[in-house]
Amino acid sequence: MKTESLEAFLRTAELKSLTRASELLHISQPALSKQIRSLEDELATQLLIRSTSGVSLTTSGQILYERSKRIMEEVGALKREIAFNDGTKVQLNIGSWPSIATAYLPSRIARNKQQDNLSEYKIRVSYSYYDLLKNLENGSIDAALFDDRGITHSFCSSPVFTEVFLLYVNRSHPSFGARDEVTFKEIKDEAFVMLPEGCDIRMLVENEFVERGAKLQISFEIELGQSILGFIQSNLGIAILPEIFVSQAGSEVKAIPISDFNSVRQISLLTREDAVNRVLLALFQTN
Fold it and tell me: Whole-model pTM above 0.70?
């Protein structure tokens, strides 16, 4: 049984279309059909039900689909581990929040290239940890960076860095613009520009308010932290964001320590494979 045929079957089963699968695999549809027929002949069973609306799995096809997913994951892991050992160039797909993709990963990857490491990287931005976990599960990404504390999953997880939360305000803000430090009590009744649910920043800030017996009030909900900084730059609100946003804040934005804010964000590296975890930790943790 050839791995190329298993890959062809998997992509067809996932996309439910011979046409879309052939486009994804960059082969002709007749060649794809031939690979799947070869599998059916070898296993002496029908795997797909073909119709004008696409394809669906038979009972035998469903069994092969579940088992072949695990087989191809093991094959991929084996190839990557051997490549790492031999110094062969490997491409790794990393999923992260926009803030990490903007303010953290570029410098790490640039430094890695200067050290002549043979790995290549593609970055995929997500706005929800649900998406990051789903993409890890289906193999769309090889690694993810986010705060996974309190989230149940089965992936390798290694802490990379921690950061405190700060209050971001416009320098002309009447209450806080001239302050060098604030307390939670002084800001707890304010309304904040916030990231949406499903983001680790939002969860950590909400948890802090709940633990302190306060209600988080939201004036605007915006997907991008960089856009939140734009609102603050225009004096349209204030926000509680991690330290990583300091480097992206404009000259009119001031980041103020919150002296008794207990929550910190711990960014961890999540991977499906130990070998990938070791390689990326070396990239992220080396000064």
Answer: yes
